[in-house]
Amino acid sequence: MAKAKFILKEPSSKSETLIYMVYNYQYKRFKYSTGEKINPKFWNPNNQRVKETKQFKEYPEFNTRLDKLENGINTVFRRLLNDGIQPNNEILKKTLEAELSGNILQPNTKSLFQFIDEYKEESKFNKKIGTIKVYTTTIKYLKEYAKLKNKGLDFDSITIEFYNAYVRYLSVDKNLSANTVGKHIKTIKSFMNEATERGYNQNLEYKKRKFKTIREEADTIYLSIKELEVMEKLTLSASPRLDKVRDLFLIGCYTGLRFSDFTQIKPENIIADKSMLQIRTQKTGERVSIPLHKTVKKILKKYNNKLPIAYTNQAMNAYLKEVASLSQLKEKVETTITKGGVLKKEAVEKYKLVSTHTARRSFATNLYLADVPAISIMKLTGHKTERSFMQYIKVTQEQNADKLLNHPFFN
For a designed S-S bond to 170, which of 16, 109, 181, 192 qualifies (C-beta 3.0 to 4.6 A apart)? Predict the structure, then answer.
């Protein structure tokens, strides 16, 4: 029997979240955004309506709108069957909106730029500053492109033809790297996904296989245990700035934590009797437990378990290159990057490529080379998939062969 129910997009949210109507019929599932939002604390999941409370005075009108929506989907479903029309999601959506026209939900009329501008402002309350910066840049490039091409971009404009032309524009006109282009395409797809879920967009070309997020494997490095030991032995007492940066970086190299996490370690994160570090990561919110390496113990003891306040990530990266240079990381590393649509190769001294993220990559690679099982390393780094984890492993063909020399298969 066909039946409608109402669910929240984010039932655990502390702020307003969308209400969806889900209609199960003939072993199919029709999901429809009501366009309405509610704070979950005012929602009764049992009867799928707003709680009758003085804190939410408009609950009678709100629930009446949901009732009309439920009645509307039941009415059009029965009418389609009576008329001999086999329902599907597309037909249900069109007939439901026709039924509700002038009643509950008018067709959404927000333009693409109106929606993404509003969405960016809304995201300031629940997304990180870095994400908002990406949104801002993506919107800027889209508006510049629309003005340059004299095109009124809207939801229906986001087609495969737009994709091909826009990738060329970002690559050639803006001279962006392939990964940066991919980042902006990914952001456009996330805008379109959100607009589709909210009922503002019906154009699904952005979901096609050819509308892909470009990704080029970055030329990244890791530091071997031997290189880390050289860095650890540097005498930097004459430069407290570099001394502090070196110590924090080594903490990252032997814990695998991101910059946002290894710079926030507090005494309460240190489980002394278990010789372990426990921390909830900022990016994923996952709690990880990491054994304390002897170098980490040494550095923690130096600061009485209270690590110094870190510089900004940008400043840390600049100072790290000084530390890496003093560590004699002068060997040349070939880098490749696609920029302006052209593949460019360049030999760069290794110390110039060291950044705070090199720490996490070094941790994962050194453990992998030490034959620690990948699943165990992933538990420490918090990676959910082996695919994302393996992007951190920087092992050369020769190192891989060396690892396999003692494998039973080759003996």
Answer: 181
